[in-house]
Each structure stands twice: as structure tokens, then as C-alpha cells.
Amino acid sequence: MAEVPGSSVASFAKSPATNRFSMLQRRHLLLKLLTITLISSCLPIPAGTTVEPPTPGPPADPAVPASSPDGPWSRYAAPASGMYIGWFGKPNSVNGGGFAEIFSGGSNSDTNTANRPAMINATLDWVHARFGRQMGLIHMYEDAGDRADFPLTVASELARRRQLLMVSLSFGKTTAAELADGAGDLQWRNWARGAKAWGRPVILRWGWEAPVQPWARDAAAYKAAWQRMWRIIKTDVGAGNVQLAFTPVYFATGWGTYQDYFPGDAYVDWVGVDDFQPPGKGFEDSFEPAYDWFAHHAPGKPFMVAEWGMKYATDNGVTTYEMPDPDWYARTLDAARTHGNIKAYVLYDNDQEIRSALSPTWAGMATLKRKLLDVFYLPQPTERL
Question: How many CB atoms lie within 10 A of CB 317?
């Protein structure tokens, strides 16, 4: 190594003894600096000095079942394992509520005076107390009206409680043919923009119970209307957080079958059925054929039973069935959980033309509450909303 005049590097290279002495000096200097630093940290801060507060760390996450954000189900806001139990209902004299709520009919926009956090949470607290647990999914109905505002307050309160929202958007007497010609474009676009701005996963249903409902009795028009809706929401607005659910009835009708109305695998995120079963009918009798068909024609898509209940009266209350065994709900859930694509079962706790509200005094309620304590039935999404 060539010597550079005045260079300590050159002197270290020439003399090991000098090198060792210099190293001792450096250690001594470092100890003095460390001592000064420790003493100064204990001294009081001079008056007038501004001290920046420490940056807070992220909040602690609640304990929830683990899931992979890149798993096959996460893109649909579906759980990697387990199943959501959902709820729709109207608190009434049958199911023990008896107060107003905001999860059905009318306008669910923020201009609705009933659509306030206090009312929303009163209903959700009542559901929680009623079943002894939180429901992973809450189902509500909304009238599209002239604007179809996204229900921001409801969605935000549910997200705060970590519950997934499913909205069934009704266009009343507007037919599928009219929607296929653009009659609902403004409403679809406005709703989708609101959902996109909100930014969290939300499930949207239109045209449920095809083909028995009056808006869904023309298969070609229905599929054209669905695909038009999909293009507006997914392509024009770009609301990728909106999950579109196709949930017809599982049985054949004079207007065809659900297979005739299926808009195509590319245009759906969730598939499933609606049904209300009389006593003596179980999962295998009603849903299994549709489950198998969708597993073939929409592979990899999560399946839901979007409206599910035991009907003890139908035809506007004219035909009456006997109440089933107390374990009917539990047996149906046991059968459903053996089918891996089923990711949501949504209770229809209400009396309309079909009576399916769950009386708190019926022995089956206690059986159902015990069944829902099983960790398989998720009280909240496994992904953060």
C-alpha cells in the first residue's frame, strides 16, 4: 500500500502497536459520547421548546379467524372457511320486536328521517340479543325510486360493527325489458357511484326469485337487463367492490327455470337461491340440485341462500302448515355446511305473504341459538371491511 503523507491509514498499516493504541482511544471517546447522551436525555426540556408527539402505531385488530387476502374467495368478500349467517326481518309482534326499523322498503337514503345511526343500531342490538350473537351479514331492501341513493349510513354503521351488507334493490313495476332499454341506467349509475366512493365490499341483488316475480318473466330481456346493469356498475363506474348476486327460485315455473335466466358466469359474483320450505323438506330436497348446477356453470363462485325460512303459512295465510320439529333449522344448517361453496345463509325473519317470522317462544329458537354458537357460522367477515 502506498503511503499518503499525514494519513492515519498509512500509519496503521505500518505499526500494529500504534493501531492498537488508536483503537483504545476510539473506544474511550465512544464511551464519553454515550455518557453525555444519556445524561442529556434526563435533563429538563427548556421552556418554549416544541416537542413532536410520537407517531401512534396501528390499532390492535380483534381476534378473527385467519384468512388469506389472496385466497380464492376473498375477491367476492366471501369467507375462506366457514359460512355467514345473515338476517333480514321486521321487528313485530310475532318475533318479539314491535318497533320501527329501516331495513325494508321505502328509501334507505340519508334523507330518510328513520335512517339514523340510533335506529340502525337499535335494530342490530335487538337482533344480536335475539339470537345470542352478531350476524355476519345483514340484508336490506331498497326502493330504487328516482335516484337509488347508496345507503351510506346503514353501510357505515354495519362496517363499524364489522358486518357485511347485502342490498336488494327493487325497481317496483319496471320490467326487465324496460331496464334492458335503459329505464334504470340513472339509478344503477348513481347507486354504483355511491358504493364506489364508500369503497368497502357490498353485495347487490336485483331481479331476485326469477322467474316467479313479475319483473323476471322474460328470459331474454332479463339477461339483457342484467348484463346492462353489470356494464354500468363494473365497467362504466368501475365499482369493483360491488358484488352482484344472482338468486332465483330453485323450482321450474310456467316462465321457465333459473337455468334459462342465468346471465352468465362472467356477469355474476355470487350465485344462489331463495326458498321457504314447509315442514318435512330439507336442504337436499330444495337446494342441492341448484347447488350442483351452479358448481358446474359458475365454478368457483360462492353460493348463498339469500332468503331462507321455514314457512308455516303461505298464499297470504290461507294454507297453513304445522310447525316443524325444533331442530329443523339446525338440521338444515348441518346439511348445508357439507357443501364447500355455500358461504352465506340468510334468515328471513318476517311475515308477509309467506309467514316465516321466528317466535321467541318457539322451542326451535333455543335450538337454533345453540347451533349458531358453532364457530363455523361466522359473526363477522374474516377480511377487514
Answer: 13
